[in-house]
Design goal:
6 helices; globular; Deoxyribonuclease I, Chain A
C-alpha cells in the first residue's frame, strides 16, 4: 500500500495537480492539509470519479484537512480527544480543522496540520505547544490500548527538528519552528513509541519539503523540512521506502509543499 501526505495550499485551486499526482504515483491513501474550504466545497465528484472516497473537515477558507482513499475509509474522527480549542479574546474558543483520522486499508491514518505558532510571544505559540502535547498524549494512549495497532501520524508539523532541516538556521533565530520547546514537543513522540520514518529512510541533510513562493526560494533551494510521518511500531515494520516528491514543486500552480510518500509492505499473516 502507498500512503502519502501533502499540504496542497488550497484543494480547489490545485485539484488538477492532486488528481494527476494520485494517478501518476499510484497512491492509495493521501492525507491532505490546508484544503482551505468548507465541507460543502470539497470536489467530491472528481475524487469519486477517480475511485477515491473522501473524508474532510473544514469550516472556512483557512486550515482544513482531508483523507482520500481507494482502500476503504472508516471510523472517521474530525479531531483527536485531547485537541485544544483556540479563540481570540473576543471569540468563543473552537477546535480548529487541523486533525482528521480514518482507518484505510487496515491502517489508522491521521492527517495533521499543526498550528504555525506565528511568533514566540503570540497566543498561537502556547496553543501550538498544547496542541502537540494533546496529540502526543492521545497517540500514547492508542499504543497503550493496542501495541500492535498500525498508526500513521502524517502531515505538516510546522517544526524544524534540526538545523540541517533549514537552508539557513540563522534566518530563524528568535522565531518559531526551531525553539527548544517546539523541538522537544516534536521529539516527544519518539518517547512514547513512534518513529519518524521519513528521516529513517531519507536521512540526507538539507532535504526539504517546503519552499516559500517569494525570493526565488525554490530555484535557490532555500527550503525547510517540516512535513513528516510518525509510525507506530507495527507500521514502522512495514515501511519499505519513503520518497519526497521534489518535482511536484515545479511548474505553474504548484503548492509550496511537496508530497511525502510511504510505501508499505503487506502486514504479516499474524497481524492481519
Amino acid at each position: 500500500m502507498r500512503i502519502a501526505t501533502w499540504n496542497v495550499n488550497s484543494l480547489r485551486t490545485r485539484l488538477d495537480r492532486v488528481l494527476a499526482f494520485l494517478e501518476r504515483s499510484g497512491t492509495d491513501v493521501l492525507a491532505i492539509q490546508e484544503t482551505k474550504c468548507r465541507d460543502d466545497q470539497v470536489p467530491l465528484a472528481a475524487f469519486e470519479a477517480a475511485g477515491y472516497e473522501v473524508a474532510h473537515t473544514g469550516y472556512h477558507q483557512w486550515n482544513g484537512v482531508a483523507i482520500v482513499s481507494r482502500v476503504g475509509l472508516a471510523d472517521v474522527e474530525s479531531s483527536f480527544v485531547g485537541q485544544p480549542a483556540f479563540g481570540k479574546p473576543d471569540q468563543e474558543p473552537r477546535v480548529e480543522a487541523r486533525a482528521l483520522g480514518a482507518t484505510c486499508g487496515g491502517v489508522r491514518v491521521w492527517s495533521l496540520y499543526v498550528p504555525h505558532g506565528r511568533s514566540l510571544t503570540d497566543p498561537h505559540y502556547p496553543y501550538k505547544l498544547a496542541w502537540l502535547e494533546g496529540l502526543r498524549a492521545d497517540a500514547a494512549s492508542w499504543l497503550a490500548a493496542d501495541r500492535s495497532a498500525p498508526v500513521a501520524l502524517l502531515g505538516d508539523w510546522n517544526v524544524i527538528p534540526r538545523d540541517t532541516d533549514v537552508w539557513d538556521p540563522a534566518a530563524f533565530d528568535g522565531h518559531t519552528h526551531v525553539s527548544p520547546a517546539e523541538r522537544a514537543a516534536f521529539a516527544a513522540f519518539e518517547d512514547v513509541g513512534y518513529t519518524e520514518v521519513t528521516r529513517e529512510h531519507v536521512p540526507a541533510e538539507h532535504t526539504y519539503t517546503y519552499w516559500d513562493y517569494q525570493q526565488l526560494a525554490f530555484p535557490r533551494n532555500k527550503g525547510l523540512r517540516i512535513d513528516f510521518a510518525y509510525a507506530s511500531p507495527a507500521l514502522r515494520e512495514r515501511v519499505r521506502a519513503v520518497t519526497i516528491d521534489r518535482d511536484e514543486r515545479k511548474g505553474k500552480g504548484a503548492s509550496d509543499h511537496v508530497p511525502v510518500v510511504l510505501d508499505l509492505a503487506d502486514p504479516s499473516p499474524s497481524r492481519r
